[in-house]
Amino acid sequence: MVVENLTRDEWRDVTVTVNAYYRGGAPTLAPGGRLEGALSGFVTGLGQRFDVNRERVWRVEVRATSDAGPVALDWELRRQQEIKR
């Protein structure tokens, strides 16, 4: 997983949530900086790790704060039915 800060502001308290359950993050992300982490490093609140052999990524949420205000980035894989419409 790669998250890149393309803004001019430092992001603080960066949280990346995968599939609404698995979380990772960093205390800060500098302007132009990249946050990189293996999907297997993302864990649930109960300590379960993302299993790349059994699961696929269908949703990613990034949350942080900056001097410019809250940061919220969302990505979601569209389901096949929605694409066919």
Please outline what is shown here.
This protein has one domain (2-84): Immunoglobulin-like (Sandwich), CATH 2.60.40.
Structure description:
The chain has 85 residues and is mostly beta strands. The chain has one domain (2-84): Immunoglobulin-like. Helix content is 6%, strand content 45%. It is built from one helix and six strands, in the order E-E-E-E-E-E-H. The chain has one helix spanning 80-84, and strands spanning 2-4, 11-18, 22-29, 34-36, 59-66, 69-76. The strands form two sheets. The protein has a four-stranded antiparallel beta sheet with strand order 3-2-5-6, with no helix packed on it. Strands 1-4 form a two-stranded antiparallel ribbon. A hairpin with a 2-residue loop joins strand 5 and strand 6 (69-76). The protein is globular, with a radius of gyration of 14 Å. The model has no long low-confidence stretch (mean pLDDT 93).
